[in-house]
Automatic annotation (TrEMBL):
Na(+) is not transported, but it plays an essential structural role and its presence is essential for fluoride channel function. Na(+) binds at G67, S70. Belongs to the fluoride channel Fluc/FEX (TC 1.A.43) family. NCBIfam families: crcB, PRK14211.1. GO terms for biological process: cellular detoxification of fluoride. This is Fluoride-specific ion channel FluC. It comes from Rhodococcus qingshengii. The lineage of its organism: Bacteria, Bacillati, Actinomycetota, Actinomycetes, Mycobacteriales. It is found in: Cell membrane. It catalyses: fluoride(in) = fluoride(out). Its main location: membrane.
Length: 114
């Protein structure tokens, strides 16, 4: 049963990430869609972590949905691409801003539900 909940949540989260990628354009080379997906995923995971979720709801929402929505592999690949195009400053900004905003979003989510 848990595997099905993770799959359902993951498929829904991945669909959300697809919609972000399709409708949120890059801004001056900055991958806004991936950034948005990861920050939203961090915030929601913070909310779900701070909430007293049942094992089933945690599997559906935290592991499944947040795991399907957020994307470390795309983040890494985008930074490699920036490095190959010699966009070092943009890559460093993306890395630092992603870490600061992502951690802050997770912290805020936990604070809201704690």
């Amino acid at each position: 049963m848990t595997v099905l909940l993770v799959a359902l949540g993951g498929g829904t989260g991945a669909s959300g990430r697809y919609l972000l990628a399709r409708y949120v354009p890059a801004y001056k080379g900055f991958p806004a869609a991936t950034f948005a997906a990861n920050v939203i995923g961090c915030f929601l995971l913070g909310l779900f972590t701070g909430a007293a979720l049942s094992t089933e709801m945690a599997a559906l929402l935290a592991t499944g949905f947040c795991g399907g929505l957020s994307t470390y592999s795309t983040f890494a690949n985008e930074n490699v691409g920036m490095a190959e195009r010699r966009q070092t400053a943009l890559s460093l900004i993306y890395i630092v801003v992603s870490l600061i905003v992502g951690l802050s979003a997770a912290w805020l989510g936990i604070q809201i539900t704690d």
